Amino acid sequence: MPSRRRTLLKVIILGDSGVGKTSLMNQYVNKKFSNQYKATIGADFLTKEVQFEDRLFTLQIWDTAGQERFQSLGVAFYRGADCCVLVYDVNSMKSFENLNNWREEFLIQASPSDPENFPFVLIGNKVDVDDGNSRVVSEKKAKAWCASKGNIPYFETSAKVGTNVEEAFQCIAKDALKSGEEEELYLPDTIDVGTSNQQRSTGCEC
Amino acid sequence: MSMEATELQDLSDDADYAASQQQGSASMMRSDSGKRSLQSEHEDAVLIYLKDNVAIHPTQFASERISGRLKLTKQDSVLFLSWIPYKGQTSNAKLSEKDRSLYTITAVPFTEVRSIRRHTPALGWQYVIVVLSSGLAFPPLYFYNGGVREFLAMVKQHVFLARSSEDQNVFIVNDFQSPLQRTLSSLELPSSLPVASGQSVYPLDGGSSSENQRRTSSDVGNRVSSVSQSGFRKQKSHDPTRDLSIHLLEKFSLVTKFARDTTTQLFSENNGFGSIDKRWNNQPVHSYPEKLSNIAEEKHHEIRHSYSENDLLKDDEISYIDVPADPLEFDKLSLMWGKPRQPPMGHKERRNDISPSIKCRISTEYFTALLDSEGRVVESKALRERVFYGGIEHQLRREVWPFLLGYYAYDSTYAEREYLRSVKRMEYATLKQQWQSISPEQAKRFTKYRERKGLIDKDVVRTDRAFEYYEGDDNLHVNSMRDILLTYSFYNFDLGYCQGMSDYLSPILFVMEDESESFWCFVALMERLGPNFNRDQNGMHTQLFALSKLVELLDSPLHNYFKENDCLNYFFCFRWILIQFKREFEYEKTMQLWEVMWTHYLSEHFHLYVCVAVLKRCRSKIMGEQMDFDTLLKFINELSGHIDLDSTVRDAEALCIEAGENGAASIPPGTPPSLPLDDGTLYPQEDDVL
């Protein structure tokens, strides 16, 4: 069904201010890290071409402001999303605790057709900081949260060093693609996303 | 005010008013300073040259012309140029007396003339264009009986006249430098003239940034070629073989008509100033003659406009989408009103051969001249006007910003301000002490404080760190920024801290160089812009709404386009408005723009007109490429660093004047940065904990 092929996959990155959303996006798209990113105001996105099998897609990755009071803008930015990436800082408990808010807020504002099965991916960023000594959110805790939300794929990354960023986004792209195709086929119930494939660093088998 | 209106009315009604009263036309062609003395040059002026049958064409029809007499007179060794239309002798009944008086040139001294461009085609009429040093140009003066050569020869006998090295038809008066050529070449229309590469545009910012000018002029060659390739191809009925003069005539005639319509409207409404925002009726309104003096400016303005747009877009592709015409009938032509900017206030005092400390003192002295003996700003509107039309020399910002921001009252004395500073310094220390006294133990039980501090800590270290003042590890200014923001979040606990505040504070701290003073300036700014950061985002939504109304008013096809493409929320302008273009311009330019906006000279909401100006410049790109919301957002974000400040501000000024009352009425009362309407709960609290 070539005519129905989607070529644009829209991904939204959400999470508290300063967890590294902009850095993750830039590391993935531009293979660059800077200490001088400014706080994101409003929203912006980068695009990257990705290939699956013999098909080429444009991954449109949206970076948003992290402060809660800007969430009301989400309505405009979240619509049409194919996947939502939740990011927290493994060195900040607060950023982890806020994940529920971000997830719920996204589902409300984006109002996807099938919220139960809408693909999320969780990223615990900044694993490089202080060689992990200042880490406050354990991998176990993060995975438990993922399991409770329908087995969300989980990655631990360092946007600064580049660790695992490519892997995380490959999974994100696959999830987005699957989500997009489901929408096209209008058969949301036939795909089972609920199978367990949330192993750290191994990518998702979806 | 009413006196002035009456006078102006007289002028507009009586064609000979200007001729008989030098005052009228002297002010009509008033130079930037607006202070040129109204010479009584005829009393003992010597007539040097007289030429009859010199005409201007207010419309594109050659039959419609206003003939008059061109004169050169000399008084006190200064040469003056005059052109007075013949009384009651228009070639066409359609031309009113008003038309004729519009163009009267009375005794313009050659010290204010920058150049004269001659056009002497083998066929057709000869004409000259006189360009003033302010950048204004008079409409072409047609020598129906020939004689341009003689005229120039006569001028040359009395003033230093040098032929431009770039264009042999351009004669520079008292020239010293290249900026003249810029002005001259900018007179030419790219669509009708092959513009040689290497020519440059009109100086962008009155010389305050020579580096920028150099960069601009070096880029122009490329831009010119791309403009001629694409920028004008969409213009209907464009025929490259058409004579420049016809083209010029067309342009001028459109402008003339536009000017006439606008000014007629201006006078027909109450008090003669109806189209100017009533809320500003305590401020000087652009006088009628002053506006007219800008008519001839559109040449260079338009060409710069084209360059800038093209520069922004970088894309030479020709759009095949038929973009609806701009509803402002003359589109870019109508954007010619904005006056040229002056050098920043205090600039004249700047010299390179003296130390910075003396420079500072001199700048301060310049400002001091605007104060009475006790330090009151004698005429705040004059100060605000001066800043609006040129910004402030950096050394002087520290003195002036507190007034613009409302921290200092204009009518305060030196002593009162000194007292205020000391009181406020103590008050600041007390406020700062509130959070400084929180012990680590207390902080553990004070989540809001911890989180707020954490957010501020995160943001200050990523605010303008590439800028010298804030760069490097353990930068003390970054610490000051943190302290001020944290103190502010206690001063205004309900509003707290929100991202974007550090963007505002950074230039303020850089300018004020004092923690307490910066804090109170920031407080004053937040009195107006605090609603931008409300939890309910109401201040932002109001402004975005007002912006949509202004675009609807000033560019309905673009508005309709946004409507059809689901872009009416204007979220793509969110960053522009939240931090008033801080991320769109380089640091110095941002400060220039801010001080211009903070004058509230034409409108409190000048920033919204700046938004419209930028959008308007991009309209053909946006509509031609049929951008959807995402593409538009990306496009707008990527304009950052590519917007020309000077021409944008001038466009915004033009739009603001043009919108007049209707513009003001499009903006709901209380829209930031207007002061809040009531003293109720300024910052509604919701469940957001920060």
Summarize the structure.
The complex is a heterodimer of chains A (206) and B (690). Chain A has helices at residues 21-30, 74-78, 93-97, 99-110, 139-148, 165-185; strands at residues 8-15, 43-52, 55-64, 83-89, 120-125, 154-156.
Question: Secondary-structure map with pairings?
Answer:
The complex is a heterodimer of chains A (206) and B (690).
Chain A: E1 8-15, H1 21-30, E2 43-52, E3 55-64, H2 74-78, E4 83-89, H3 93-97, H4 99-110, E5 120-125, H5 139-148, E6 154-156, H6 165-185
Parallel strand pairs in A: 1-3, 1-4, 4-5, 5-6
Antiparallel strand pairs in A: 2-3
Chain B: H1 2-13, H2 17-20, H3 22-28, E1 46-56, E2 66-75, E3 78-85, H4 97-103, E4 105-109, E5 113-119, E6 126-132, E7 141-143, H5 148-158, E8 161-163, E9 170-173, H6 179-186, H7 210-231, H8 244-268, H9 288-292, H10 298-313, H11 356-368, H12 380-388, H13 394-405, H14 414-436, H15 440-444, H16 447-460, H17 476-491, H18 501-512, H19 515-529, H20 538-554, H21 556-564, H22 574-578, H23 587-598, H24 606-624, H25 629-637, H26 645-666
Antiparallel strand pairs in B: 1-2, 1-7, 2-3, 3-4, 5-6, 5-9, 6-7, 8-9
Helix pairs in contact in B: 6-10, 7-10, 11-13, 14-17, 14-19, 16-17, 17-18, 17-19, 18-19, 20-21, 20-24, 20-26, 24-26
- Please provide the ordered H/E string of secondary-structure elements of chain A: EHEEHEHHEHEH
- Largest beta sheet: strand ordering of chain B: 4-3-2-1-7-6-5-9-8
- Give the tally of β-strands of chain A: 6
Q: Give the terminus-to-terminus CA distance of chain A.
A: 21 Å
Radius of gyration of chain B: 27 Å
What integer value in Å does the Rg of chain A equal?
A: 16 Å
CATH superfamily of chain A: P-loop containing nucleotide triphosphate hydrolases
Our estimate of the beta-strand percent of chain A is: 15-25%
The best one-word shape of chain A is: globular
> Could you tell me the mean pLDDT of chain A?
86
Strand order of the largest sheet of chain A: 2-3-1-4-5-6
CATH architecture of the domain at 2-280 in chain B: Roll
What do we call the CATH topology of the domain at 2-280 in chain B?
PH-domain like
